[in-house]
Amino acid sequence: MRLINRSFNNESSNFKKMIQFIIEENSYKKDCFSWSLGRIVDWKYGLWSEKKYIPSFFSQNAQLWFDYNENLVGFAISENGDNMFYIFTNNKYPFLYEEILNWVKINWNNRQGLLYTEIVENEEYKMRVLEKNNFYSKGVCEVTRAFNCSNALSKNTELPQGFCYSNMKEKFDPMGQAKMRLNAFRNQNIINKIDILVFDYVRESPIYNPEFDFYIMNQNGEHVCGCEAFIDYNNCTAEIERVCTHSQYRKNGFAKKILIKCMQELAKHGIEKAYITGMSKIAINLYGKLGHENEVKRFYYELSK
């Protein structure tokens, strides 16, 4: 069957089709998924880079392949509009991976730096195709741990005196959350108007749920730690992201406490499994102490000079 490809169209149903593609792919890939539902939604709603303020960013950084019946069968995507790219293909079209890879090499090779991508440890076919096309492995870049949420129910989440748990449904405090996240992720203590707009917009995402946007606050009502769970109800799983602690409150065990609390609440809502991905050594070490049932490694592959 003849396939056609075209740039992402923000005014069409392309984004909904991409979401459905990820949901269906994750239903059979299980723990070895490439992207979570939260990650694909964040590509559209997480305006963490100024590049994304321009609407054309999305058409320039996603190329979609369709069959004759307009079913999405694969796509190439750049998360941040740089030389990092990802390729997704329907499991019935394994040959399409190399076709899309060649398209990326032709159309995105003029970006600053060498092209590189990320693949899951069990994707041997993709490894062979990448190596055939002069990509080489640069080693492990991420580790995803899988947790049985019900196992968290018996764990202690008691906090020191003066601290308590809350979420954005119980106490909606966007300014307090923005202060904490900017400090934790950017070492930034001044909030700009654009920062508030970006945080407001990400909460418009179709899978945002304030009940699963958790934080710990001190006796003054200030946010000291937080995390957020994005639920894939079709697969009864959740990805826990945006794990962060204010610089003044690190090394007190708050991140571990709020992650356990998050998994407890997920279990109470019938979510069986949670995933947490770490990139830094600190994050990988922390998540490895929470009692995971499985772990999956991802590898960087970079185009040779």
From TrEMBL:
Question: Which Gene3D superfamilies does its entry note?
Answer: 3.40.630.30
User: What is this protein's name?
Assistant: N-acetyltransferase domain-containing protein
Query: Which Pfam families does this chain map to?
Result: Acetyltransf_1 (PF00583)
Question: What's the source species' lineage?
Answer: Bacteria, Bacillati, Bacillota, Clostridia, Eubacteriales
The species is: Fervidicella metallireducens AeB
Instruction: Name all N-acetyltransferase domain ranges.
Output: 170-305
* InterPro entries per UniProt: Acyl_CoA_acyltransferase (IPR016181), GNAT_dom (IPR000182)
Q: Where are the transmembrane segments?
A: none
Under the GO molecular function aspect, what terms does this record hold? acyltransferase activity, transferring groups other than amino-acyl groups
